[in-house]
């Protein structure tokens, strides 16, 4: 999402992870069958595989001489070590004149196409949803006009449902300009499903087809469905508002656990994840604190602020672990079902995250938008992360 306050500096924080070095000889061994499975291929080598890498053209030419295509390498992502983070597709700051820059929302269709919602800080009259296919090629661009009276258009959360794409527009963060949109990806028809919001941000769907939408400035979760399109105020709480004077984005993304006993919601400004219990009829109970960034910093001896620093997109895996994008620290934070912070993943070099925003699972691969909000958009891109387990809601 477009930050509403001065972006935090990330200069003092460097994610730490183990390093393993390898040489170009490893690539040849890998391609000719003598590469040993236990030897890790790390970011240093895989930067060469990345379509966004400055080396990709010459590497692909070399691979062609060896009879191996870059597409084949893309098909081997599942064989890479858990924790590998790579760029996927083009740099969106420079591709097609930059109209796809600063992607925030992300959805995937049954054919493996990715729909990236641009949240460009320069978009005022027309926004764009850019489509990247399963091979990392930019294949389509959908124009989305700004709403009536809005001074800007800022596309954020997305959800694929029944052959259509739901997209949220934060517009200029003023009621009634925030919108819930439905897009036909074949015809590019854009329909306003609901307006009257301030800053619609995150979306989730339950097993009954109900859609839930957060409003980051109103502290509200709304609900509607295709069968009953009436937008109702499903839940409201002060815990969904930010108390942070430096960042007033509150309720951000949403995620259901496997049994849909709880709907999880993170608060970006407060650095927290909460959960709301649901009864058998889908009615909400009292909101509960699941994880608190400030408390985790103290418990784990982390520099403050680190944990849940601008908590953004969320996804569950099949083991019940919750993956949260902490996009000021440019890392994925993984929480156990009890709320313990059990893993932190960050990329390195050209493959590092840059304001990682929205994740979707495709099997064990997690694809993530990089909004590049704190560096002027120069690292606008899509990333792929090799997770230890399959996603709970996966395509």
Question: Could you describe the 3D structure shown?
Answer:
- With 395 residues, the chain is mostly beta strands.
- The protein folds into two domains: 24-79, no CATH class; 86-386, TolB, C-terminal domain (Neuraminidase, 6 Propeller).
- 10% of the residues lie in helices and 36% in strands.
- Strand 11 and strand 12 form a beta hairpin.
- The chain starts with 23 loop residues before the first helix and ends in a 9-residue tail after the last strand.
- The model is unreliable at 3-64 and 66-72 (pLDDT under 50).
Number of strands: 24
What structural category do the secondary elements indicate?
mainly beta
The end-to-end distance, rounded to whole angstroms, is 24 Å
Biggest pleated sheet: 4 strands, antiparallel
Provide the CATH top-level class of the largest domain.
Answer: Mainly Beta
From the spread of the alpha carbons, the general shape counts as: globular
Instruction: Calculate Rg over CA atoms.
Output: 20 Å
Give a summary of the structure in a few sentences.
With 395 residues, the protein is mostly beta strands. It contains 5 helices and 24 strands. 10% of the residues lie in helices and 36% in strands.
Pick out its properties.
395 residues, mainly beta, Neuraminidase, 2 domains, four-stranded antiparallel β-sheet, 24 strands, disordered N terminus
